[in-house]
Design a protein that fits this description.
By secondary structure, the chain is α+β, with helices and mostly antiparallel strands. The chain is 26% helix and 17% strand. The protein has one domain: Glutaredoxin (3-Layer(aba) Sandwich). The strands form 2 sheets. A 4-stranded mixed beta sheet has the order 4-3-5-6, covered by helices on one side. A two-stranded antiparallel sheet has the order 1-2.
């Protein structure tokens, strides 16, 4: 079996089009499972600030809405898009709703959380707003828990280290 990396995967946009991760080759990507009714939902604000500050340097942020934790993302794809734009002015891609754990886990999240492939960063998603950092070659380099703010010094340090390598 060929070795998978981030670029091997695809998702769907909120409007149902196929969204290929290989369009981000050469970029640093933050993958975040998001939800509209979570105590961490205000992190959308800081994700947007991070995106605005670093997008021209090569950072992409991808939001993956998921309803895996206490029904905190009950909305339709259209409602989620509207919520993100109206409440937080989100301009980074927020894709179609997926599952980030369980029997119906999205293939990207199955790969991200696989402990055999990623012994350092793998493991089940415990809550909304878990952040994965992918380097410009499609490899997972860091994982940050829900409680870690996107603007936290450790997150910025991890992103800057990868951007400087480009």
């Amino acid at each position: 079996m060929e070795t998978l990396n981030f670029y091997s995967f695809e998702g769907k946009t909120a409007t149902g089009e196929t969204f290929h991760m290989d369009q981000f080759k050469g970029k640093v990507v933050m993958v975040v499972n998001v939800a509209s009714k979570c105590g961490f939902t205000p992190q959308y604000d800081d994700l947007q600030k991070l995106y605005e500050e670093y997008k021209d340097k090569g950072l992409v942020i991808l939001g993956f809405p998921a309803n895996n934790f206490m029904n905190q993302e009950p909305g339709s794809n259209e409602e989620i898009q509207e919520f993100c734009q109206m409440n937080f002015g989100v301009t980074f891609p927020v894709l179609a709703k997926i599952s980030v754990k369980g029997n119906d886990i999205h293939p990207l999240y199955a790969w991200l959380t696989d402990k055999k492939i990623h012994p350092e960063t793998g493991g089940t998603i415990g809550w909304n707003f878990t952040k994965f950092i992918i380097d410009s070659e499609g490899n997972v380099t860091a994982r940050f828990a829900s409680r870690t703010n996107p603007l936290d010094e450790e997150v910025i340090k991890a992103i800057n280290a990868l951007l400087e390598k480009q």
